[in-house]
Amino acid sequence: MMLFTKGDKVIIFTVLLSALMIYLGFTFTVFAKRPQMVEIYFDGKPYANYALSEIKGSKTVRIETSYGINVLEITPNGVRMTDASCPDKTDIKSGKITKANQMIICIPNRISVKLSGYNADVDKVAH
Amino acid sequence: MNKHITKTRKIGIMAIFVAIGMVLQYAESRLIVTSVPGGKLGLANVVTIINIFMFGNKSAILISVIRATLGCLISGGITALPYSLSGAFFSTLFMCLAKKLIYPRISTIGISVIGAAIHNISQIFVAALVFSSWYIFSYLPALLVVAVISGVLTGYTADVFSKRILKEIYK
Prior knowledge:
The structure holds 2 protein chains of 2 kinds.
Chain A: H1 6-28, E1 33-42, E2 45-51, E3 59-65, E4 68-75, E5 78-84, H2 90-93, E6 103-106, E7 111-119, H3 120-126
Chain B: H1 7-31, H2 44-55, H3 57-76, H4 81-102, H5 108-130, H6 140-169
Helix pairs in contact in B: 1-2, 1-3, 2-3, 2-6, 3-4, 4-5, 5-6
C-alpha cells in the first residue's frame, strides 16, 4: 500500500521548509542581538524591568497578579520560569531564554517575559 | 455520501462525534506530554477529518467549533477559548478547502498535515495579538515540525478508521 501520495510529500516538504526558513530568519535577525534587559509584561502592559548587568549570581522574582503566581529566575546570561500556578506549565517547559527578543509566555496568567537587547554589530563598531 | 441517512440520525451521529472529539481533546491534555511548549498530538483532528468526509464542510466546521468550545470548558479554562476556537475553525476550514481543491492528489495524511499546521499558525496569530508581539512567531518552527509528525499520525489514523469502521456503521 502506498502510504504517502506525491502531493502529501510536497505538503510535508513545504511545511518543513517554511519552518526552517522562519527559524533561520529569527536566528540571523532579531535573535542575533545580545540580551540586556529582562522585561516583564502583564496583560500586555509593562510590569517590571531588570538589567542583566546588575544581576549578581541569580535573582528570583515573584509575580503575583489576580490571574496567578509566576516565579522567575534571572541570571546574568538569561532568564527562566521556575514555578507557575497555571495548569499547563508551558512557560516552565519553555526553559531558559538567553537571546535578545526571545520570550517566555504564560497564556493563562497573561504574563510575558522578554529579553530586550542591542545589536551585537553596533557593539563591535563601538570597540 | 449517504443519502439514506435521516436528518435525525445525522444529528445523532454528529453529537456522538462531538463527544468523541471532546474526550480525545481532554484525554490528550491530561495524558500526553510533549517537550515542545504548545505542541500537541491533536487527536481530535482524526474526528474532524472523518467529519469532513462524512457530513461535508459546513457540518464539519460546526462540529469542530462546538467540540473546541465545550472541550475548552472542561479542560483548558476560559483563557484558552480564543486559541482553541480559532485553531479549530481555521484548521477545519483549510482542510475542507484542501479536500475540495486538491483531494485526490493528496491523501488524508496531506489534509491532516495542512490542518495541524494551520491550527498552530492560527493559535500563534492569536497569541501575537493577545501579547501584541510578533516575536511569538519564533515558536512556530518547532510547532510546525510537531505538526508534520502529528499530522501524519492523525491523518493515517483517520484513513484506517474511515476505511475499516465506517463501512460497518453503514452496512
